[in-house]
Predict the 3D structure of the following.
Amino acid sequence: MKRNSIRPMHIAASTLLAVLCASAGQSIAGPREQAKRIHDRLVGTPPTTATLDAMAAKVAAGDGVGAALDAIRNPAFYNTTLKNFVTPWTNEDKNVFAELNDYTATVIGMVRDDVPFNEVLSADILYQGAPGVVATDFSLADNAHYVELETTHVDLSDPTKLVRTTQSTQPGSQVDATTAAGVMTTRAFAEAFFKDGTNRRALRFTSINFLCRDMEQLSDISRPADRVRQDISRSPGGDSALFLNTCVGCHAGMDALSGAFAYYDFEATDTAGRLIYTANEVRPKYLINGNTFPTGYVTTDNSWINYWRVGANAGLGWNAALPSVGVGAKSLGQEIASTRAFAQCQAQKVFESVCFRSASSPTDRAEIERVATVFETSNYNLKRVFAETANFCKGP
């Protein structure tokens, strides 16, 4: 009896790898599938055949970033993806469904036009609808112009419809080129963070949105308390240790920096309201509750000191070429946007938006560091951050 002969099977390495990955619940995607993933993550709508063909060719050639930049040309990236990315920064509730406003429109325009994003907190810049694009003209007193841009579906990716201008040249503007401070002096920012309160909220949300750190994460009880204002008790509940071991951790640094906003306010009206800037006049909100601790700091001007350059927060990577003191919001914006933490924060936010997850693995965290460096060396081009991140997250 002859034995049945068994022929050896020769399986190509690529086939074997596909079988092994499939058995592990993974799949190997070709350039076309990877290109579609990039487009889906950045745009959220299906690409045209021509776009997908062009993107797939670039992915196949090892240029996934170029493929992502092709996807970014789609108007939906600006009108939907980028709008939803920025809108939560413009309100205290971080509401993604808030109305389009001058803050959001300005960031969209800056990204579209490759304006260096480290100017977002310091430039005399504003984006608004071109004359005649909508019936409602731009106004410093309300948000109706931007609401109409949104409700009439004006294409924000079109530079003839959403145009760049300056805050200082708007009729009735109280800020000039030396006091305009990017998005921090937009009407939407003022309504959200200068309205009522003591303007500490403006510093807090600027830190949350541009350093990815809330005050508790920046707390350092070793910093000097000489700039803590009069409205903060040094013995809350009769316990001075509580101030020294807890409260001072945030207020020492926060109060020293928030002096930059001393001349800014929001004046609400029955219908809306507007940003107020009173040169050389400290807003009354800085002097409220002076009897809480009468020997506390009295704000007399809009100077600021960065006590966080030393101590635990030195790790934010402050720019040694800049001084640790300044006057007004513009110089504070430059101080914040020159940190390594600013670059890392933008890379982190884009990663979470594009990859649909937090950066939890060492590989993810290393990618954020790499992209932050690309961001800095590409003249702070935020569009490039989206492209680099989408390429990383396109999957195998």
